[in-house]
């Protein structure tokens, strides 16, 4: 008697769920999953409006990173071929996505908006080295259509308490 009861319960549960609609999502290779506007997946280094590398090698992103996955080698101050003024340059920039928390602190602290987050996912890698983004790979990620919803300067404007507030009208 004890052996037939679990079989009977399983049959009843199966028959009860036969007509229910499926609530699972299809596997990734069937359809692309829609991502929200604020979805952030990987990083990019960008050029400024003059066409120069925006990163000045200030190492602020390296200092603020909680998991310490950013390594910046500052190149010192050199004369800009475009403007003729001296400015800072970065010789090497490495970001390791293996341990990145995607906290976006590096984007928020960058004074030049040189590092941005993208909404596109990083291509699948089969080794740890595939998730280490060198300076060349970060500049190759520079695609305006895939940028996340904001940069560091826009984020600072959002957090400004004086922004957008109007004085309350007095009741007469």
What can you see in these coordinates?
The protein is an alpha+beta fold and 172 residues long. The protein has one domain: Alpha-Beta Plaits (2-Layer Sandwich). Helices cover 22% and strands 18% of the residues. Strands 2-3-5 form a 3-stranded antiparallel beta sheet. A hairpin with a 6-residue loop joins strand 2 (70-79) and strand 3 (86-96). The longest helix has 14 residues, at 4-17. The chain is elongated and about 85 Å long.
Q: Outline of this structure?
A:
The chain has a three-stranded antiparallel beta sheet with strand order 2-3-5. The chain has a two-stranded antiparallel ribbon with strand order 1-4. 22% of the residues lie in helices and 18% in strands.
CATH topology: Alpha-Beta Plaits
Q: Would you identify the regions where 5 or more consecutive residues have pLDDT less than 50?
A: 164-168
Name the helicity range: 10-25%
Question: C-alpha Rg, in Å?
Answer: 25 Å
Tally of contiguous helical segments: 5
Could you say how many structural domains there are in total?
1
CATH architecture: 2-Layer Sandwich
Number of distinct beta strands: 5
CATH class reads: Alpha Beta
Mean pLDDT: 83
Strand order of the largest sheet: 2-3-5
How far apart, in Å, are the first and last alpha carbons? 85 Å
- SSE string, helices as H and strands as E: HEHEEHEEHH
**What characteristic shape results from the CA principal axes?**
elongated
Structure characteristics:
172 residues; alpha+beta; Alpha-Beta Plaits; 3-stranded antiparallel beta sheet; elongated
């Amino acid at each position: 008697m004890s052996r037939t009861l679990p079989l009977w319960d399983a049959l009843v549960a199966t028959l009860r769920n036969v007509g229910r609609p499926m609530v699972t999502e299809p596997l990734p290779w069937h359809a692309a999953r829609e991502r929200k506007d604020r979805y952030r997946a990987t990083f990019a280094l960008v050029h400024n409006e003059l066409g120069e590398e925006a990163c000045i090698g200030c190492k602020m992103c390296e200092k603020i990173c909680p998991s310490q996955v950013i390594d910046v080698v500052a190149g010192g101050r050199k004369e800009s071929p475009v403007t003729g003024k001296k400015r800072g340059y970065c010789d090497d920039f490495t970001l390791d996505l293996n341990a990145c928390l995607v906290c976006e602190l590096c984007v928020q602290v960058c004074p030049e908006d040189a590092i941005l987050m993208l909404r596109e996912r990083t291509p699948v890698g089969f080794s740890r080295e595939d998730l280490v983004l060198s300076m060349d790979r970060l500049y190759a990620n520079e695609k305006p259509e895939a940028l996340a919803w904001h940069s560091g300067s826009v984020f600072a404007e959002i957090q400004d308490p004086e922004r957008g507030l109007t004085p309350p009208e007095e009741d007469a």
